[in-house]
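seq:
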Amino acid sequence: MLSAPRVLVRMLVLLRQQPLGILGCSALALLLSLLSLGLLFGPMQAGLAKVLLRLARDGVWEPQAQWSEFRWNTWVAGVLFLGLFVAPTLALPIRDNISDQIAAFFYQVVVALFWFYTFTLIADTKLHWWDALRESWHLVRDHGPSGHVALVLLAILGSYFPTGPAPDVLGLAVLVAFVGLSVLGQVVAYLEVTRTPAP
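struct:
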């Protein structure tokens, strides 16, 4: 079973080792994803996962590895994930109706659970996006969905941090931290579940 508290502790240890590096790579991934209107989301997510995998697994800081995942496979995975995660939420007529907002929130939780390890698996094993997506779900299912749900809820709730209606310095800092901590959590959880056999 995946232990969310153990993942969070390990994340803090890694964050203390490379705080500016992790936030810098996260800022770069976010900036290029936004400037490309999401087209570079997949390569940047997989590249960030590769950098964090090397840090977590080997203790080696290699930020240049962030550029190693520019492949058709990561591009397709990124576009599909964003299409599933963002587009339907934006397309839904979400008013001030709380039930619509709750439905959109739970939709995002389900999508994030299915895709939890996908970009990390692509970065680590070079699996095709479809095989990585299927393996991601198997890892979540076999190692206890409850720990994964807790991590997804923390990540999504963190993205709702109130920063005001207009993007400002605090809002951008929160978004950068959200991206970095989300990927770091996925990487640490991945290393945890691939080290221990499923119950």
